[in-house]
Structures are given as structure tokens and as C-alpha cells.
Design a protein that fits this description.
single chain, 273 residues, alpha/beta, Cobalt-precorrin-4 Transmethylase, domain 1, Methyltransferase, Cobalt-precorrin-4 Transmethylase, Domain 2, 5-stranded parallel β-sheet, 5-stranded mixed β-sheet, 11 helices
């Protein structure tokens, strides 16, 4: 039996003109288009005059739909997988189907295109040689702060997605945990109200107060810079963290990791001080 092919097709993240000629050809030639939300995808398909059978696989139905779509692929059909915006499986539904297709021997072919994280990074003005894509942080404050603390010593540029109703809280947590790092807040990429705020986390937070908070956000934050500091300077920073409510052990760990110092020595010196 000859299986069909699953194409992973990247679609525009806002501006409908941001689609490749190859993506349009694949969508036109596919036997079936698997879309995250068929109503949303119809706007793109109608814009380019593409009429094909559609099947939705939005998150709550992804596992069930995967079985159905796999049946089509095993019957020899060519399926184009698309999400509402960007690349399926990257902070979007689609990963379950892709993984299943790979495991069961179906040919999987990527058709690259628009990417919110890469577009934001390219325009951020921050180092782009190495970066870590984190995606969405945990929605609960405690878990979010824990995750940010884990990332505090990462030297690569960090890229996050965030929802509008949490963006202010997230930036406040980042300023508290990361300190005065450079960052870029990118809103509504490629859309009418696209906007990029650059500066320190504190400056961006202050600027955000005069803006309407709405739409989709990408936050790009520079990685930790290892600097040579004396123990006295490290103790001053540790004391500052403790004044903000951090425990002695946590504060010594954060400062020691940030500057490549001995946590035990820093902790012991703080007791003497």
C-alpha cells in the first residue's frame, strides 16, 4: 500500500500577502486541507481562490481528528496541514498529527514560511546568533515566576509569546527577576496595528501604560551577561534581592549563578555581614 503525503504548510501570521508561491501551489494541489479552525482558514483560502475539502483539528478534537486524517493519508491522499497562523505544531495544534504520521511511516514534508518568533527576533535589535524559544509561560503567577527564575541564568536571547490579559504581569515579573535587561515588545506582527517597543524592561513597562493592551504579543529579552564582580558587589545585589522578599538561600543561588561565583561562599559571607 502506498501512503499519501502530509505537508506542513506555514501560513501568514497577519498580512495575507506573506505566503510563499510553493505554499499556494501545495494548497491548490492537496486532496484535503486540515485546518486548526476552518472558519479562520477560509479567509485565506477565499482570498487566493482556493477551494478544497476542509477538516478541522482544533485542540480539543486533535486526537480524534488525527485518527481520521491518518485514515485519509493511508488511503493515499495528499493532506496539507495548516494552523490559524504561522507553522503548525509550533505553539499551535498539529504536533499530534505530525508525530503520528512520522511514527507510522507517512512522508512528512515542511513548507516553511512566516514565523512570529523569527520576525520578532529579527527586528528586536538584540543578539540573534543564539536564542531560546520559550513560547507561552505558565498562566499562574507562582509557576510563571518559578519558570522565569529557572531562565534567569540563560545567556541566549529569550523569546516568549504572551496573551494580552497577562502581558503587564509577565513584564513585571521579568523586570523583577531578570533586572535591567534590554528587551523588545512586539505587538500584532504584520497587522495594521503592528508596534515594536524597545528598551529596558522597566522602560517598556512604563511605555505600555500609555498604550492600548490588545492583540498578540512576542517578548524578546536579552540573555544574562556574565560580568566580573567582587564579592562585596555580589553581597549588595544579594541584599537587594532579600529586601524584595527573596530568602537568603534563593538570593545567594541567583547571584552566584549570575556571576559564576561560589554559592556557599556567598551565602556564608552574607551571614557574616
Amino acid at each position: 500500500m502506498s501512503f499519501g503525503t502530509l505537508y506542513i504548510v506555514a501560513t501568514p501570521i497577519g498580512n495575507l500577502e506573506d505566503i510563499t508561491l510553493r505554499a499556494l501551489r501545495v494548497l491548490k494541489e492537496a486532496d484535503l486541507i486540515a485546518a486548526e479552525d476552518t472558519r479562520h482558514s477560509l479567509k485565506l483560502l477565499n482570498y487566493y481562490g482556493i477551494s478544497k475539502p476542509l477538516i478541522s483539528y482544533w485542540s480539543e478534537k486533535e486526537k480524534v481528528r488525527t485518527e481520521e486524517i491518518m485514515g485519509k493519508l493511508k488511503a493515499g491522499m495528499v493532506v496539507a496541514l495548516i494552523s490559524d497562523a504561522g507553522t503548525p505544531g509550533i505553539s499551535d495544534p498539529g504536533a499530534v498529527l505530525i508525530r503520528t504520521a512520522v511514527e507510522e511511516g507517512v512522508e512528512v514534508i515542511p513548507v516553511p514560511g512566516p514565523s512570529a518568533l523569527l520576525a520578532a527576533l529579527s527586528a528586536s535589535g538584540l543578539p540573534s546568533e543564539q536564542f531560546s524559544f520559550i513560547g507561552f509561560l505558565p498562566p499562574k503567577a507562582g509557576q510563571r515566576r518559578k519558570r522565569l527564575t529557572e531562565l534567569a541564568s540563560e545567556e541566549k536571547t529569550l523569546i516568549f509569546y504572551e496573551a494580552p490579559h497577562r502581558i503587564a504581569e509577565t513584564l513585571e515579573d521579568m523586570e523583577d527577576i531578570f533586572g535591567e535587561r534590554r528587551a523588545a515588545l512586539v505587538k500584532e506582527l504584520t497587522k495594521i496595528h503592528e508596534e515594536i517597543l524597545r528598551g529596558s524592561l522597566a522602560e517598556i513597562l512604563n511605555e505600555l501604560k500609555s498604550r492600548t493592551i490588545a492583540g498578540e504579543y512576542v517578548v524578546v529579552v536579552e540573555g544574562m551577561k556574565r560580568e566580573a564582580v567582587t564579592m562585596d558587589e555580589a553581597l549588595i545585589e544579594m541584599k537587594s534581592l532579600m529586601k524584595k522578599g527573596r530568602g537568603r538561600k534563593e538570593a545567594s543561588s541567583l547571584v552566584a549563578e549570575q556571576y559564576g561565583l561560589s554559592r556557599k561562599k556567598l551565602y556564608d559571607l552574607s551571614l557574616e555581614a
